[in-house]
Amino acid sequence: MIVVIDGPAGAGKSTTAREIARRTGFDYVDSGAMYRGFTYLYRLHGFDRSSLLKKLADHRLRFEFHVTDARAFHGDREITDEIRSDSVNERVSEVAAMAEVREAVRHMLRKVSKNRNVVLEGRDLGTVVFPDADFKFFLTADPTARARRRYEERIGRGETQVSLEDVRRNVEKRDHIDSTRDIAPLKKADDAVEIDSTFLTFEEQVTRILEHIRNTPEAHNMTFTRI
Predict the structure, then answer these.
(1) What is the rounded CA–CA span in Å between residue 165 and residue 95?
(2) What is the CATH number of the domain that holds 161?
(3) Domain assignment present for 227
(4) pTM for the complete prediction?
(5) Structural domain of 66
(6) Strands 77-78 and 70-74, how do they pair?
(7) What tens digit of pLDDT does each residue of 34-53 get?
């Protein structure tokens, strides 16, 4: 079974998807980690687009996805922390807009999700990557609320030099790039359930998704471990 959660930057997709995975016993697949991995390679190649695209056939990126954990590797070296760096944050939308990179990620996502119960989060999963997903959700929130959440996350990770204004500008920049790019722009799938989390607690938004899954015919014959 495939559950996808799309939405803009800072909407809480990752934390929500991890919690849905934890409560259902499904594996959590972070599509954003894959795009960040390719952005990491972009940085290694001096932000040279042609050099990055030449390496797509042998990129040596590897990802491990479990119930609530996502780890990234380049060859034998773990790069989970590196793909969350500021330099990657600032360029990930640029890399994600490259058609060749999007095709590589689509292939990886479909391969890793085959014959598994998974929860995935991203921006075009319900519209492009998994148009026939069993469940589709579109998680959004007011841009100011999203910026504050992202800011608080980074402060919580010890990034004391970051400012709320810088984070807000980054969120707005990513919104613009993601929604206006020619290839697979960010948009809600016609059959996705939209959840505006601006005034919802984390538990409330998780509960809404779980209730929708539990109350649909597709889930009647399934045993969820922790709902």
Answers:
(1) 24
(2) 3.40.50.300
(3) no
(4) 0.84
(5) 2-213
(6) antiparallel
(7) 999 999 999 999 999 999 99
